[in-house]
Amino acid sequence: MTDEVVVSQTIAWIKSVVIGCNFCPFAAKAMQRKSVRFVVLPNTTVEATLEAVARELKLLDESENIETTLIILPYDFSDFVSYLDLVRIAEEFISLQGYDGVYQIASFHPDYRFADSRDDDPANYTNRSVYPMLHILREESITRAIENFPDPDGIPQRNIAYANQKGLQYMQLLRAACFD
């Protein structure tokens, strides 16, 4: 599978699930502006992923036209627990680099499971992506986006309610369609 296919499937997931289900009410604007950067890391390790995170932080520092970066890991970190370890390490790395309050990581994984939820809980699909990925976000952009958004704290609950209302089969089919 080529990087182009991986990116295309990821874009399909963003459009149909993240934007289509309105899980992130701010994603459409970034996609329309083409300010989302996609980086595919084939056959990576924790160390190589952290090197990519460092490169992306530097690039984000230098490029205001890039709103956010998705580091996609199509062949690695398929085990959700190992992936969560990577997320924790990447968050610590960002902090050690002095980026607290500047950037944060959002996590998406094909087997994402919220704490205390069942594996078949449709709400897990609010974070179940087509591939494991680290989403680097500018905290300043988040702050600006939610300033005029009604009840930003209610977004997770609305997402969970939407996924539960649609049901497991719908959420599974919606994500599966991204591979077509």
UniProtKB/TrEMBL annotation:
InterPro entries: DUF1415 (IPR009858). It comes from the Bacteria. This is DUF1415 domain-containing protein. It comes from Candidatus Opimibacter skivensis.
